[in-house]
Amino acid sequence: MKEILMKYMTRHTSLSQAEQQSILEELIVQRFKKGTYLIKQGDSPTKKCFFVLKGCVRQYHIEDDGKEVTTNFYTEEQPILLFNFEEPEAQTSEHSLICVEECLLVVADLESEQEMYQQYSELETMTRRMMETYLSHAQNDFAKFVRASPEERYKTIIRNRPDLPTRIPQHQLASYLGITPESLSRIKKRIQ
Predict the structure, then answer these.
(1) Residue 111 has what pLDDT?
(2) DSSP string for 18-58
(3) CA–centroid distance for 14 within its chain
(4) Any domain includes 4
(5) Domain shared by 33 and 127, yes or no
(6) Higher pLDDT, 156 or 124
(7) Residues 127-149: pLDDT tens digits?
(8) DSSP SS3 for 66
(9) CA–CA dist 17, 48 (Å, integer)
């Protein structure tokens, strides 16, 4: 799976093959079973981040009334940031991250990332560009999502992430869309 990272670095940097290989040797890639929590709501903050090589991770929170609300799904070639730069002892995680499928993730922490950036400045530039692109898309997607009807939201998912509905349970997708599973079923029937 490290070949995915190699392709990514080749596409987004001019690092030599030797530099890319050195970076790959330093990275920690871990396999997580379906159902594994990366962090739970209420846990102490972490200084970890992840990059999805394979699999799907769901982000959700539980509201005061006990209702689970799905807020995101992370799939291949997407970063998951958990860095908390504020006062960690005064904070707790406001959401949970759980592997919806078996996942292969690059696992990093702030300290090791900073060391790698000092050694490979182009890696820092690539990461910054990746995060800028991700945040720009996330902001645009969120603005569209808020304005869209549930049916338009579903169509956007089908258009932009066509494999997602087949990878996750319908009730989680419905929660992400802000509707009931029954409403999602009606939308699917209308579209078909």
Answers:
(1) 81
(2) HHHHHHHHHSEEEEE-TT-EEE-TTSPP--EEEEEEES-EE
(3) 25
(4) no
(5) yes
(6) 156
(7) 888 788 878 888 888 888 889 99
(8) coil
(9) 27
